[in-house]
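Protocol step 4 of 5: obtain the predicted structure for the target chain.
Materials: sequence only (see below). No template structures provided, no constraints applied. The aim of this step is simply to have a reference model before the mutagenesis design in step 5. Sequence pasted as it appears in the construct record:
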Amino acid sequence: TAGEKLFVDYAGATIPVHDPQGGPERQASIFVAVLGASNYTYAEATESQELEHWIGSHIRAFEFLGGVPKLVMLDFVPGNKIQDSTAGHCASASAVKLGALNALPHG
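Step 4 output (structure tokens):
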């Protein structure tokens, strides 16, 4: 179904970011979110792949898309898992933190 699944991940390599004021060159990660049915794509450069940037990128992608899809398909991001040892479930830490976004319209 259109708008049902959003696939998110960071693109492979980082890219150089040049400071227009002559500061040091930095590397940026590229966050990519793609709707499965249409291939409609949102992408942005982030300072790192740390959780705060990962979550911020999701929020901006949802704003760009005008809502939250039914399913967000997360790929593996290092350090982004929460293990429930009692039930044996594993969830993305960002998925848990993004739960607060349920107030946004869903696709």
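Step 4 remarks: The longest strand covers residues 26-35. The mean pLDDT is 78.
Proceed to step 5.
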